[in-house]
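In practice, a research group might receive sequence data for several interacting partners and want a quick structural hypothesis before committing to experiments. The following worked case mirrors that situation: the sequences arrive first, and a predicted assembly follows.
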Amino acid sequence: MRPVNLMLFTMLVFISCKSGEDKAPLPFLGNKALVNGVETPHKIRPFNYLNQDSMVTNNDSLADYVYIADFFFTSCPSICPRVMKQMLRLHDEFKNEPGVKLVSFTLDPKRDNVAKLALYASNLDVKSDKWLFLTGDKDFTLDLADDYFVAALEDPTAPGGFDHSGKIILVDKKGHVRSFCEGTEPETIPPFIKDVRTLLNEYKK
Amino acid sequence: MSIKNSILLSFCFFSVTCGSTFTQGERIYTSLCANCHMDDGSGLNKLIPALKGSKYLAGKNNDIVCIIRNGFNSDSLGLTMKSMPAHQKMTNVEMTNLVNYLQDEFGARDEFGARDEMNMDEIEIASTRCKK
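A structural hypothesis for the assembly, expressed as tokens:
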């Protein structure tokens, strides 16, 4: 092969790799499970919560949306405000994207009742048709956090009484976890935004 | 000018221009305040007030000392529900350094670009006044 041809060939390979990378679908995160002998990707368990408007919210009501989830509690004195700031950034980014919702589960339902969550949302200046603040059974929520790969446990020695990680998780319409980022690290947000768009494109085809 | 003097002089110059003069104040801010008020002082909408442009940082203000010392509970007003923890154990030196860092970083400046500073005496008087 002549050097010029070789160069052209190498360039072509590079170009095709690059375009292939952009179109790569998001992976299904987590361990696969065997259901009736068929391998299925990890899935969030069914749940039932009340949102800040006292409306029942469960996996069925979220089935038409891609959603961005995190775990928090309103009186959290440690990482929550930082994570919320990044959630707010994501909210502003996808404000006019009807296929995306944000979901924040409280770890502290004893203090975070519906009224408190409603006040929190209104102070955050966000609407319930976009961003859901959910309250429900505490022990169930602590277990549910596992499904989102969020470490959450009750710990009297932790600030505010709960120890949890600041992960923000992207879930597809079928309840599979597709991407995540760290709410405490603002630089992880732009690639995550890209992932949300990639997932949205999956449904446009 | 001897070489020794000029080195000393240039060192002084660099320490003034390069290093922050509010080292301790900045350190206290990062460890005690930044989690809620954010690194850039922007706060979180109406949940956590922004420090940038705050009326408590416009000019000398004794209230800022009391708020840091005693905390702030906004539940009674029903406007927000965040409450700020009290910092009773903070010494007057730490308080002075923190308040002056806040003024420098987020406070309003006058028409000459200067900011207000509070000295130890002023901080001490303010602290005694707001003792619970």
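Before designing any experiment, note the following. Residues 56 and 145 of chain A are 19 Å apart (CA to CA). Chain A has one domain: 33-204.
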